[in-house]
Amino acid sequence: MKKPFFIKTILSVSILLLVFSIAYSQECETSFDFNNWTMEGTPDAYWKILDTNDVIDTTGIFPATFFVSQNDVINVKIRGTISVETNYDDDFIGIVFNYHKPTQLADDNPYKFFLFDWKAKEESTQGYLANEGFRLSRYDGFISRNNQKKYFWGNAEETPIRTILNKRFGDTLGWKPFRDYQIELIYTSNHIRISIDNKIIFNCAGCFKAGKFGFYGLSQGYTRFRDFTYQNFIDFIPEPGSACIGDSIWFYPYNPECCPVVPGFIELLEWDFGDGETSTEIIPSHLYTNTGEYDVVLIVSKTDGCIDTITNKVTVKPLPNVNLGDDVELPACSPITLDADNPGLSYLWSTGETTQTIELFVLSEDTTVWVVVDENGCLASNSIFIDVVVVHKKLHFPNAFTPNGDGKNDFFAPVGFIDDVSLYQLLIYNKWGQLLFESNDPNSGWDGKCNGRISPTGVYVYKVDYSIERS
Fold it and tell me: What number of CA atoms fall less than 13 Å from residue 130's CA on the CB side?
């Protein structure tokens, strides 16, 4: 049996865990006044206000209960202290945001909000497993009292009623009684970030709207929420965060698709791109002229006189150096090898090949060849023009061919003014003088076979007699 409820003095524990990847300097935090908040959801819950900014959920019942603010918020940072002041039970505590429903007390209700919940220990009830650790879920649908275990206790997903956006489970991740935890929520039009004791638990990008903020409990009594503050908050996202030299980077202090107007608390945005260049545009773009890593600083002056400073990093990567050489003049049917250099990268030639080097054997007309080299998403290209010199009214024969069935240079045959040939004979011999191939058709070439078998690699002698009609 579970022990009776009791309240005990909270032990304060200080933990230092993780440093943010984005640096913030924020001012003007405002305390919430819980006297203006309301209880939502189950009619059986009881939230007791201990002080203006101190409330405790004394409810140990199963249906989900919420205590929420009356104002919609977006682009805010909210932080405060959570503790469980009893060793009775080990169930769910947490926060809700973008809260819209329930708006009344009832056993059966529509639900619409994001929920961050935290379980102390792993348990099962009526076939539903609750893991120790954290979940971030989106709710949008009707849930009856009978389905509370399915959608709040268990991990059931049924979009849009309940979608689990992220989760972290483990037997060391549960909350402990009589311990203060500092929780922080950053909720903007661009992303959600939740931290416990400065350790980031979830960090989700997306498109988010305004809604109410509040507290949550499920089957856990005597959860205390106090010293909660909020501040208008702007983060920014570089797009892309890692760019190639010559590409512009856009800087978004909010998502214009999710939030079509500039947040009303912004008075001035001042950007320092880290290379000596600045801007006061709302959504600027910047082109870096040198490679490297840059600290980009955004200073936000707000209408309440407060100033926020946010620092983020961007990386500008070099392009591969590609040079196929100068344009070249080449006799017809002469081979040429082209090298894109940059070993180990990705290549795409105009011929369709994907190797570092390619060899061209039979060129009968002027040709432009290009290659694109990819180094970690940074593309560089180069081309070469090959001026093929053809003697008028003359057939040309390559000095090599590769009869391997790959569709390239598989036949030894003449190129040039074939249509003007009136008399033609081609004879091919091996090194012992044996005749291997004979043809009177200039359109018919040798496939490298003799008596149905491919001839060995080597040097062969050919003799050709032809005449060309004069025009």
Answer: 22
